[in-house]
TrEMBL record:
It comes from the Bacteria. Residues 1-18 form the signal peptide. Keywords: Copper, Disulfide bond, Metal-binding, Signal. PANTHER family: ELECTRON TRANSPORT PROTIN SCO1/SENC FAMILY MEMBER, LINALOOL DEHYDRATASE_ISOMERASE DOMAIN-CONTAINING PROTEIN. InterPro entries: SCO1/SenC, Thioredoxin-like_sf. Disulfide bonds join C92-C96. SUPFAM superfamilies: Thioredoxin-like (SSF52833). This is Electron transporter. Belongs to the SCO1/2 family. Cu cation binds at C92, C96, H182.
Length: 224
């Protein structure tokens, strides 16, 4: 019996090592292209990149917000970029520090790649003014050329989170602006502002998959 338990433990340990941490194994995407998503259930749509059916497909709409340097940021700021986005607040004592730590792994993976950007929206914009975000960025090792922290109009931010990025995965449940937006999800957006993936920002395995999927997304344009 002890021998069987020892063998089982070794198998479980080996499986875990193959699945966790960036140093043990390099995760890859399961397909040459990623699916598209257009609503809160995150049911994948397998559409050929460049297809005419994407002309009227869900895209992240225009917006105007302010970054940690006090500069205006719009959807045009990220034109032609792949980006990962999330929603946080600087005084969060719970999930946000872990999310920031994991987003930093994505930052490091693409630190020299100008095609990849990171975007974090504050859900307490009345507190997280540019100077607060700038101090937070400096404390957390955030590179302002790579990773944009956003504040501004609360309704704009909450509408983006719930109606555009679907970060709460509410599946059609209506919420008001007064209800606090708090989620661990990271969303992957392509060069045309289409959603291409959602990931648990607290899970290292999910972060490794996100990094792999970003590479897949970069390669889409070179596919025949």
């Amino acid at each position: 019996m002890k021998t069987k338990l020892a063998i089982l433990s070794l198998v479980i340990f080996s499986f875990a090592c193959s699945k966790t941490g960036t140093e043990e194994t390099e995760v890859s995407s399961r397909t040459e292209t990623l699916p598209y998503y257009h609503e809160a259930t995150f049911t994948p749509d397998w559409i050929e990149p460049g297809s005419d059916s994407l002309k009227n497909y869900h895209r992240i709409p225009g917006y105007t917000l302010i970054n940690q340097l006090g500069d205006t940021v719009t959807e045009k700021t990220l034109a032609g970029k792949i980006y990962v986005t999330d929603f946080f607040f600087t005084t969060c004592p719970g999930i946000c520090p872990k999310m920031t730590s994991n987003m930093e792994l994505v930052q490091q993976a693409f630190i020299d790649d100008d095609e990849i950007m990171l975007l974090s929206h504050s859900v307490t914009p009345e507190w997280d003014q540019p100077e607060v975000l700038k101090e937070y960025a400096e404390t957390k090792g955030i590179n302002s050329d790579k990773w944009i922290l956003l504040t501004g109009d609360r309704k704009t931010i909450y509408d983006l989170g719930r109606k555009s990025y679907f970060v709460e995965e509410d599946q059609g449940i209506e919420r008001t602006e007064d209800e606090f937006l708090h989620t661990e999800n990271f969303v992957l957006v392509d060069q045309n502002r289409h959603i291409r993936g959602i990931y648990n920002g607290l899970n290292k395995v999910a972060i490794n998959q996100l990094i792999a999927d970003i590479k897949t997304l970069k390669n889409e344009s070179s596919l025949p």
